[in-house]
Amino acid sequence: MGDTMISILWKRSVLLLFVVFNLASPGVGGASFIVFSTGGDNTTASIQTTVDAFRTDLGNPNNGNAAGPLSSGRREINWDGGGAATTVSGTPFTGFGNIRGAVFATPGTGFVQAPLSGLAATFGNPTYATIFSPFSLLRLFTPIGSNITDVSFFVPGTNTALPATVSGFGAVFTDVDVGSSTRIQFFDIANNELFNDNVLPGTVPDGSLSFLGATANAGERIFRVRITSGDTALGPDDNPGGGVDIVAMDDFLYAELQAIPEPSSLVLLGSGLVGLGGMAWRRHRR
Description:
Elements: H1 2-24, E1 33-39, H2 45-58, E2 74-77, E3 87-89, H3 97-100, E4 102-105, E5 110-114, H4 116-123, H5 128-131, E6 140-144, E7 148-153, E8 164-165, E9 168-174, E10 183-187, E11 193-198, E12 209-216, E13 224-228, E14 248-255, E15 258-259, H6 263-285
C-alpha cells in the first residue's frame, strides 16, 4: 500500500511539471486563427473596414512607444515618421526594437522606408512612382535585395533584451497582382509553423492595396513572422522575363507584446513541484 501511494504522488508531481512546461511553451496542437483578409483598389477606403476590424480584434488602445510589458492593446508601425525622407537601414533593422518591440531582418542587404519617388530613386526604377500606392501617407517599406522580411518581437523599453511573443499580426501590401506571390507565416518559439496564408490580389492593375492579418483564438503565441512580399525583389530590372509580381508594404499592426518566461523561472517552478511531491512522500512515510 505504501509503495503504491508513493508511486501515485510521484507520478502526479511529474505530470504537473509536464503540464506547466507545456503551458509555458507555445505549440502547434490545435492551432486556430481568425483571419482578416481583403484585396481592394488603390484607395485607402477600399481596405479600411477590414483593417479597422483587425485593430478592434487586436485590442485597444494603440500603445505607441509606451514601455512594456502592458496587459492589453496593440502596436502599429506606419513607416511615416520620416516624412518625405528616404531612409535606408541595414539588416537587422532595430529602429523600432526598443520603442515598439519589433526587429526586422532579411536575406538581402537591408530595408528602405520611402515615398513613391524615393522608391523609384532607391531602386533606379521609375515605374515604382506609379505602380504602388501608400495606405497611410507618405512612405512605404520594403527589403533591399530580397523579397523576404522576418519580424522578431521584444518587450518595448528593454532595448531588445527581453524576447516576446504576440497573439496576432497583420500587414498592408500594395500592388499584389498574383494570388500566390505574397504570404504571411507565423512560427512559435520552437520554429513550428502556426499559420500560413496568401495575400489576396488587388482589384486594379497598378497601385492596389491588400491586407492580411490573423489573431490566435486557441492560445497560440507568435514568436516570429515571415513575410514574402511578391515573388521577386525590387530592382532596376525586376521583370526581365515577364510574369513576376513586385510588391511593397505599408502599415504593420500587431498585438501587445508579452515576455517569454525565462528558462530559469521554469526550472525553479519545476523543482518546486518535484519538491512538493517529495514532501508528500516523506509525510506519508512518517
